[in-house]
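Our preliminary data section would be incomplete without showing what the modeling component actually yields. Below, a chain of 488 amino acids is followed by its predicted structure, encoded as tokens that our downstream tools consume directly.
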Amino acid sequence: MQRKQAHSPGRGRDPFIDVIRALCVLAVISQHWLMPVLAYENGHLSTGNALASPGWWIVTWLTQVMPMVFFAGGAANFFSFRPTKSTRTWLRSRIARLLVPVVPLAAVWLLLPHVLIGAGVPEQPVLLAGRIAGQLLWFLAVYVLVVALTPVMYGWYRRYGWRVVGVLAACAVVVDVLRFEAGPAIGFVNALFVWLAVHQIGFHYADGGLRVRSGWASAGLSAAGFGLTAAAVFFGPYPASMIGMPGAPVSNMSPPTALMLSLTVGQLGLWLAFRPVITRIAERPSATAVLRWCGTRFMTLYLWHMPALVMTAGIAVVGLGFSTPAPGSPMWFAVAPLWVGVSGVFLVCFTRVFGRFEFRRGSGTASEMGLGKIVLAAVLSAGGLLGLAAQGFVSPGNPLAPVLWVALVLTGLLVVRERTAPKTAVVRGSRIVPVQLDVHQEGTRGESATSESATSEDARAEDVGTEDARTQDVGTEDARVLARHGSG
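Predicted structure:
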């Protein structure tokens, strides 16, 4: 397969992917903060969804950004994995960096609901808060599995190209047919088929396959994607909203339907149409500083933005008796900036306290480990994360269940973080810089560590789309073996 040059020589990152990730996280946070319709009476917190308002479903076609999150993750994983010297070391590092930020979240939320109830806070809103705090871990559970499959998917990409995306899309459609005809449970298989397909599209972007389009071609791609989505909604069994709605019999997201693939095409075409402008803006020093700050804290922002909402709602709704105005009313628009602002203050505080876990490095470089143990760690941690996403951090009927789910996550983390070799260091100017933090270039191959001029802040960038250390000294045989396995 002929490959195009995707990355400019000497560049360690793609600002376009950085912007996608940053704006997608901002969109997720904003949507989750503005969606709730809350009221509190007689110890009971009632909830609704502002996007369930008539006609508001169209907003979700742009604000449902998980397709672009997985696309950006695919591009970043391609940049990071392609030059790696050891598949095993890459997998260990990637999975560990995903799981570490979960530790403080679990430590707080396993205890906090019980403390609040013991202090006299009404039980129902506390239990609801405990479930909400764990809900969004579904993404991390799926992404851990996607990362674990990256070496195999990379091998298939090298051999089969776009055919991999086509096969995954066809499988997603088959699963949808079975879901609507036989039963909804099988639909959860699409959590892998759909998101692996989107992740694979990110490979093609990273390798240059989506960068040669003109603005008009990108706009046409977007129109085709959104047009196919509209046709599937109008003529097919799919709901119009791209997020799950309260009481709706079918959700396009939980589990994902094949409609997410046409939505990906629509959104991606729109992003590509504005890529030149986005890249120019992203390369400005001020924008670079913002992207760098976000890049080291993406998982913290994602994991803690719902607890920030819980704090705001707890004080305003449960504590002060405030009820959310009718969505779309003048009062709703007037209150929204204050609501978001208060939640933002809490999120900044949480990020300052817990963000250090995200870019903290171990005491040494990763040592050798069998692939079986790495796969076991991924499966255990994904299972624990799915359990927390389904039940939350508190379960009145089975109080030990959340502890079990957290134990599975911690077990997976301990497996991939065990045994570290001493770090070596290189001298740069008057500083001694750990090698593990020094090299973080994503998209280039064969350059030496001394060709990098990035700061150590860049090197601490978060896992879902940023650079990994490439100082492994365990050889290339693992990558070759697994790539051959994936290609066969």
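The longest helix spans residues 330-354. The mean pLDDT is 83. Preliminary results of this kind motivate Aim 1 of the renewal.
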